[in-house]
Amino acid sequence: MIIIFLLIFVGVYLFKKKHLSNETAKQLSWIIVNVTNPITLLCAALSQEQKTGIKDLGTAFLCFALMYAVLIPVSYLIPVLLRVEKGRRYSYRMLSIFGNVGFIGIPFASAVLGPESLIFVSICGLMFNLVIYTYGAASMKKTALLQHPDRTDGDSFSLRDIINTGTVMSVVTIAVYLADLKVPDMIGSTLSYIGSCTTFLSMIVLGVSVAQMIPKEVFTRWRLYVFLLVRQILIPVIFILILRPFIKNGLILSTVTVMAAMPAGNMPLMMAKQYGVKEDIISAGIILTTVAAIVTIPAVMFFL
């Protein structure tokens, strides 16, 4: 986590010195999401000599399905306990359910748990996309209608949005992994060079976001601190205690735990922008949980 913090600081420094701009960060984000992250997953599937069996893949799928099945009802409980006004509870629901399992999760799992964990991360990414483009989109659209009752533009996500680069590459990665597909060394090396950029690029883009945060808007919201303790530490630890007696594969347990402990993801913010929903709490939550992850993730992993 110290290494990741230092990489984020590089992004902060480059932005402050005007070597990176918001537009450049957006372009890099597109490259990370659509090119380097998917190829990182694919490289992991191609490089593993000792394959995980169907049983373990099925176990991982059930674990991640359970994770989202638990997070959705919990996301309704958290804002009630925090006494958030009804019109703003959607922000805490989105922050609770959708962690940054791709942008941060993939490079983090690769660096900390090893490339062999990425086959399980790809399953998590597949589940993430299924949930956010169904439940997440429907929930955000409902909120938009409440905030803008006169809105008639009909702008909405379609189920076809589930078919995107992340989902397709997750399926391809699993298929390549199961088929034990081999590629020529030249192709494998090319993919490896591209995938190896993921961690650094991801962290400097996060650094650009951190460099622009307004401390007063982020660090003066007391509810976000309570949310942070519950969502980023307590819930992942509970997952560990629940799953440990049933999961014999330590790598699966570690991967599920790390994915559950990820800071809030960017997709809810993107959806909020598209639907015209108030985004201040979501934006502050993403920044605070990302910065705090330097401490919260190691704290959760201590219980493994």
How would you describe this protein?
The chain is mainly alpha-helical. It has a single domain (2-301), classed as Na+/H+ antiporter like fold (Up-down Bundle), CATH 1.20.1530. 74% of the residues lie in helices and 0% in strands. The protein contains 14 helices and no strands. It has helices at 2-16, 22-47, 54-81, 89-97, 105-112, 118-147, 165-179, 185-195, 198-212, 215-219, 222-243, 250-260, 267-275, 280-301. The longest helix has 30 residues, at 118-147. The mean pLDDT is 86.
A few lines on this structure:
By secondary structure, the protein is mostly helical.
CATH fold-level assignment: Na+/H+ antiporter like fold
* Radius of gyration using CA atoms only: 19 Å
Order of helices and strands: HHHHHHHHHHHHHH
Q: Cα distance, first to last residue?
A: 16 Å
Report the average pLDDT across residues.
86
Question: Which CATH architecture would you pick?
Answer: Up-down Bundle
Low-confidence stretches: none
Main sheet record: none
Name the helicity range: over 70%
Count of alpha/pi helices: 14
Structural class by helix and strand composition: mainly alpha
Shape: globular
Number of DSSP E strands: 0
Comma- or semicolon-separated keywords:
single chain; about 300 residues; Na+/H+ antiporter like fold; 14 helices; globular
Topology of this protein?
Elements: H1 2-16, H2 22-47, H3 54-81, H4 89-97, H5 105-112, H6 118-147, H7 165-179, H8 185-195, H9 198-212, H10 215-219, H11 222-243, H12 250-260, H13 267-275, H14 280-301
